[in-house]
Amino acid sequence: MPFSTQALLITYTNKAKRHTCKGQKVRMEEFVESAIEVQAQVGRIDNLDAITREFEQRLTIKSNWGYKLAAEQLSEAIKTVEKH
Q1: Which domain of life is it from (predicted)?
Q2: What is the rounded distance in angstroms from the CA atom of residue 83 to the CA atom of residue 70?
Q3: Which residues on neighbouring strands pair with residue 64, listed in sequence order?
Q4: For residue 65, which of 20, 49, 70, 74 is within the disulfide window of CB 3.0 to 4.6 Å?
Q5: Which residues 6+ apart lie within 8 Å of 30 measured at CB?
Q6: 27: domain range?
Q7: What is the Cα gyration radius of the chain?
Q8: What is the C-alpha to C-alpha distance for residues 13 and 84, in angstroms, rounded to an integer?
Q9: What is the pLDDT of residues 69-82, one digit of tens each?
Q10: What are the angstrom distances between the C-alpha of 13 and each of 18, 31, 35, 74, 84?
């Protein structure tokens, strides 16, 4: 996993920890904030558009997301995108 996507996952996990169980909209807002922060700090995130789409699809299957499960879904989305 490239450094930029590792930074995205860590930043997102830390941001998501602030709220125990939130819906898809809040989790996506946290993701976007995390992506912006990481890009400002380390530069371009490879395959960000594809990761965003994959993560968003994964979040639609459930209404509320705990931070650990949401972070796990982001990790899986990154792995899926990197395989292709």
Answers
A1: Bacteria
A2: 20
A3: 23
A4: 70
A5: 12, 15, 16, 19
A6: 3-83
A7: 12
A8: 24
A9: 999 999 999 999 99
A10: 9, 9, 12, 9, 24
Please give the tally of structural domains in the chain: 1
Strand spans (E) along the chain: 21-23, 64-66
User: Cα–Cα distance between 20 and 68 in angstroms, integer?
Assistant: 9
Joined tokens for residue 55: 């993560």
The encoded tokens of residue 63 equal 């209404």
17-43 tens-digit pLDDT:
987 778 888 999 999 999 999 999 999
The single residue listed with the structure tokens 């459930």 is 62
Q: What is the DSSP letter of 60?
A: T
Two structure tokens written together for 24: 């898809």
Q: Strand pairing partners for 80?
A: none
